[in-house]
Structures are given as structure tokens and as C-alpha cells.
Amino acid sequence: MSEPKGPNLLPILQKDSDHPCFQCARCCTYVAIEIDAPTTMREYDYVVWYLYHEGISVFVDFENAWYVKFETRCRNLTGAGLCGIYERRPAICKDFDWRECENHLTDEPADRWLFETSDAFLAWLADRRPKAYQRYRRFLRRKHADGEEPELERVSAPRRAPRAGSRRANPAKRDRGRRG
User: Fold this and answer.
1) Exposed (0-12), middle (13-18) or buried (19+): which is 77, by Cβ within 10 Å?
2) Which residues, in sequence order, are bridge partners of residue 115?
3) Burial 26-37 (b: 16+ CB within 10 A, else e)
4) CA–CA separation, 5 vs 135, rounded Å?
5) How many whole angstroms separate alpha carbon 43 and alpha carbon 36?
6) CB-count exposure of residue 44 (10 Å: 0-12, 13-18, 19+)
7) Where are the beta strands (DSSP E) in the chain?
8) Which residues pair with 113 in a beta bridge?
9) Residue 48: CB partners within 8 Å, gap ≥ 6?
């Protein structure tokens, strides 16, 4: 059996075991978007809201930049942990330096602070910014005390006309059934 030859064949690629990214691809499993450092009560509330969602975390790097991190695998990552579009990958991928990967940092944690739950963020806020934490608690109490538009009334199901002969169609008949 001869091997097929031709210009359309691509070599099967794999990472050598001495490659720094061997069995990793961590950088291809999330997207991190920089956000403003929270300073207002509404911004603290946004962070809490982000953290209520599955697959979302918030972290602060060592330059004090804040990020929302979305755990989501790149659709071009192959099962072998390789980039399926390596030759035309985006510049952000090309510029990434594996030496800065969190899996290669051994002398320090990857992030200054990492919040994976709202409770973790609120505990940090209470510890690191106690005055802001107290203002945030008052903010929430006021928001809940003010009341809100009743969502269920606003989106209630449309009422249907009662069927002929039903108890809803004839209130007197309904009342007679209850009297004893």
C-alpha cells in the first residue's frame, strides 16, 4: 500500500514532550476582558453580579488592573491541544508569551487577587476596603427598601375568556357549590 502524495496533505502535528505548552493550552480556554477598578457602589454590585454567573471570575493582576474572566474554550483548539488556525491566529495569540502563562509561574501566584464567587469578593471587600463594604451594604439595603416594579405583574400571562358553562363563567354557580 503506497502512501498518498499530493500538495493538499497536511502533516499531523503534535507537541513534543519538551515543548513548554505540552499538555496545556490553558491560554486557549478563557477570555479575560479588562474592566475599570470598582470604586462606586454600582460598580461593586456589577462585580457581585458577574460572580453570580457560572464560568465567570474576576481577577486583579499585579499592576492592579481588574479583569472579568470568561471560561470558554477557543473553537479553534484541537483535541490535541493545538491551534487549528496557527498560521493565521489573531495577534493577541501570537503576542502571548508562554513564559507569562500562569502554569509556568512558580515563584508567585498568577494573580494578585482572584474572585471566583461573590462571597469571596465581598469578604475581600470587607477586609481590604471596610468603609466601602459598609457603604455597599447600605446601598443594598436602600435599593431593597425602595421597592421595585413588580416584575410578575408586568409580565403576567394574558387572561383568557372563561369557557361557557365553567364555574368561572358563572360566579353564582361557583358560590352555590361552596355553600353547605
Assistant:
1) middle
2) 58
3) ebbeeebeeeee
4) 71
5) 9
6) buried
7) 30-35, 56-60, 66-71, 113-115
8) 60
9) 118, 121, 122
pLDDT digits (tens, 9 = 90+) for 57-86: 999 998 999 999 999 999 998 887 888 898
For residue 136, the tally of other CB atoms under 10 A from its CB is: 22
What is the average pLDDT score of the chain?
80
Q: How many residues does the chain have?
A: 180
Q: At 125, which helix (H) or strand (E)?
A: helix 118-128
Q: Are 32 and 59 spatial neighbours (Cβ–Cβ below 8 Å)?
A: yes
Strands 30-35 and 66-71: antiparallel
Quick check: 118 and 44 in contact, CB under 8 A? Answer: no
pTM of the model: 0.68
Residues whose CB is less than 8 angstroms from the CB of residue 69 and which lie 6 or more positions away in sequence, other chains included: 30, 31, 32, 56, 57, 58, 59
Q: Closest by alpha carbon to 56, among 121, 124, 130?
A: 121
Residue type at 1 in one-letter notation: M
9 — pLDDT class (breaks 50, 70, 90): very low
Give the residue extent of every domain in the chain: 26-144
How far apart are alpha carbons 114 and 121 in whole angstroms?
8
DSSP 127: H
